């Protein structure tokens, strides 16, 4: 298991994801544990999820505000009150300098000890978590953590024009990648995770009763790989030390 910082050493965490619901599928149980322990958590969503949904009767122009509202509700379930948005187009995210700057700005604003984001690596055994937006956001976030946010001479306008001092993030947790070295027991947070996922009705309502069983299977497999006792459920991450 990776030498992740103990939660007692963490005051603030920033979660950077591509779409509404990404954090809830990958890490809602873990986030709920953090907030219950007094860690301040901020969500940063790169897109509004405007290319999502399954109901053709919902006009496209309604999808982005709908998914924003769903994510706000899901965040509240996990104990998160601060949700921020960058408004990039869903399905067309690239790890550009502009995106790196936008993420570095929020890192300097929030000043988190820990950042959680999606893996920039493709998982060839299970392709769905490796959406190109996920990989682009993971890559841009890692670059924003190192070197951009900590280097006062990277994007100097953040300091000169916005008075945002450099900030060093102590570690990054990567979700939904091809490998993991840290597992969080979220057995007690399972119902919270499902409630957060249900808040994304435009994405999960069609799953009906299959949703909790599907999620339980994923989390059971994670726990088994971590060597946890039978019946336990876990979310999986790759921890990257950055300090």
Q: Looking across the biggest beta sheet, what order are the strands in?
A: 3-2-1-4-5-7-6
Order of helices and strands: EHEHEHEHHEEHHHE
User: Rough shape?
Assistant: globular
Q: Please, how many helices?
A: 8
Task: Please give the share of residues in helix.
Answer: 40-55%
**Secondary-structure class:** alpha/beta
β-strand number:
7
Give the low-pLDDT segments.
Answer: none
Indicate the proportion of strand residues: 15-25%
Largest pleated sheet: 7 strands, mixed
Rounded to an integer in angstroms, the radius of gyration calculated over CA atoms is 17 Å
Tell me, rounded to a whole number, the average pLDDT. 95
Quote the distance from N terminus to C terminus: 19 Å
Subunit arrangement of the protein = single chain
């Amino acid at each position: 298991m990776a030498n992740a910082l103990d939660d007692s050493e963490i005051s603030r965490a920033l979660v950077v994801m591509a779409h509404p619901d990404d954090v809830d599928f990958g890490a809602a149980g873990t986030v709920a544990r953090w907030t219950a322990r007094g860690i301040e958590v901020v969500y940063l969503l790169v897109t509004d999820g405007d290319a999502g949904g399954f109901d053709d009767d919902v006009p496209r122009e309604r999808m982005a505000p709908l998914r924003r509202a769903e994510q706000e509700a899901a965040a509240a379930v996990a104990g998160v009150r601060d949700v921020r948005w960058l408004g990039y187009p869903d399905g067309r995210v690239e790890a550009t300098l502009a995106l790196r700057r936008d993420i570095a700005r929020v890192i300097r604003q929030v000043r988190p000890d820990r950042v959680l984001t999606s893996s920039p690596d493709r998982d060839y055994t299970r392709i769905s978590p490796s959406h190109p937006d996920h990989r682009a956001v993971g890559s841009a976030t890692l670059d924003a953590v190192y070197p951009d946010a900590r280097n006062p001479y990277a994007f100097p306008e953040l300091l000169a024009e916005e008075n945002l001092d450099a900030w060093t993030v102590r570690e990054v947790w990567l979700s939904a990648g091809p490998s993991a070295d840290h597992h969080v027991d979220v057995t007690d947070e399972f119902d919270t995770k499902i409630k957060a996922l249900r808040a994304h009705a435009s994405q999960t309502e069609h799953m009906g009763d299959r949703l909790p069983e599907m999620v339980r299977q994923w989390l059971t497999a994670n726990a088994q790989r971590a060597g946890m006792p039978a019946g336990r459920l876990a979310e999986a991450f790759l921890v990257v030390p950055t300090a």
